[in-house]
Write a structure and sequence with these properties.
The protein is of the alpha+beta class. The protein has one domain (42-187): tt1808, chain A (Alpha-Beta Complex), CATH 3.90.1570.10. It has three helices and ten strands, in the order αββαβββαβββββ. The strands form three sheets. It has a six-stranded mixed beta sheet with strand order 3-4-5-6-7-8. A two-stranded antiparallel sheet has the order 1-2. A two-stranded antiparallel ribbon has the order 9-10. β6 and β7 (144-153) form a beta hairpin. The protein is globular.
Length: 193
């Protein structure tokens, strides 16, 4: 009888594999609860939405917070996801000493088309378990922004957010921690004419 053993990696092991060239620069991977996951390739809508969001967030948050795009964050579950965006507090060394941790993170954002189920289930539970207060999904399939807040643990042990709100492409949304900063969603969503 053959038994398969599933290897779980620590952050240190994951970094070592990267340093020795086990993964190429073109590999789109992230560490989720000790497992190395390959991420879906980005389509045109995802790429354009990401570009527009980067531009608008950078303008809004200049001198207020750091906008990190598709860079790792460290979570206590042995995870190093690479959300499409993480809005983080300023740090003297610009996070040269370590990736942002829960204490540094203001908001995580995913842009989802083919990854929608993964972002709504796996990533949502991961971020809620880490006690990240705010999580947004730019849902390109339903053409809406899903805003999640107030993480909690369910009676079955799983994690979720107690508040969810849907925003449509013609609406605006305030940025967490900076209620005076308003993101106009019509400048982010890709409109087909």
């Amino acid at each position: 009888m053959t038994v398969a053993i599933e290897k779980r990696f620590s952050s240190a092991e994951y970094h070592h594999l990267t340093e020795i060239g086990f993964f190429s620069e073109d590999d789109h991977i992230e560490l989720i609860k000790g497992k190395i996951n390959y991420m879906a390739a980005k389509g045109t809508f995802h790429t354009v939405c990401c570009s527009r969001l980067n531009k608008n967030l950078s303008l809004l948050l200049e001198n207020v917070a750091i906008v990190r795009c598709q860079d790792p964050i460290l979570l206590p579950s042995g995870s190093e996801p690479e959300p499409d965006f993480a809005i983080v507090n300023f740090k003297d060394d610009d996070y040269l000493s370590h990736h942002p941790t829960v204490e540094d993170i203001i908001l995580v954002i995913e842009i989802a088309d083919s990854s929608i189920e993964y972002d709504q289930k796996v990533k949502l539970e991961l971020y809620a378990e880490a006690n990240l207060n705010y999580y947004w999904i730019f849902n390109l399939l339903d053409f809406q922004l899903e805003s999640y807040s107030n993480p909690y643990q369910k009676h079955n042990g799983k994690f979720a957010y107690s508040q969810q709100q849907i925003y449509l492409p013609h609406q605006t949304i305030s940025l967490p921690k900076f209620p005076e900063l308003i993101l106009d969603l019509s400048k982010v969503f890709v409109m087909i004419k």
